[in-house]
Amino acid sequence: MTTASPPVTPITPAQKQVAEHLISGLTTSEIAAEGHLLRTSVTAHIRSLRRNLHCQPRSSHPVLVHTLLLHRQVPLPSLAALRPSFAANEDQQRLMKALAEHSTTADIARAANINPADVEHLAADLVRAAGAANATQLVGWGHALDLLGTNGQGIPDPSADREGAAR
Prior knowledge:
Layout: H1 13-23, H2 28-34, H3 39-52, H4 61-70, H5 90-101, H6 105-112, H7 119-130, H8 135-144
């Protein structure tokens, strides 16, 4: 017997604005500056986004972005800044998926089949190879490139395993 996940709560216009900045790779402080908001307001919006999408309270920004895009709460990001020569190999795709679905180093390492001590530098290498600002922007680009459980339109792929997306 399987239990269905509760439906996500649609996000507010203010949350959508914060989410779009997050997907573009901005940090919490940068979002606050860009949106002329207090950092605490941005943090509160991010907390609400996690709650609306049924993410764990301490889930990472890449996990939140992955969930936002899986549930089509925001449009796919532009690939304009992606390095034209970037093409993720199988190991890089596995790491990108692990970053999108897991928040802890141990879980990322297990999902990517790498040593936990290698997660930070391999993730940094992947971010650099793509020309992304950080792993959060990389996950957004992974969706736009159709590498993370969507069909390129932001529509969830029913065959994709999203069990870890709430971590």
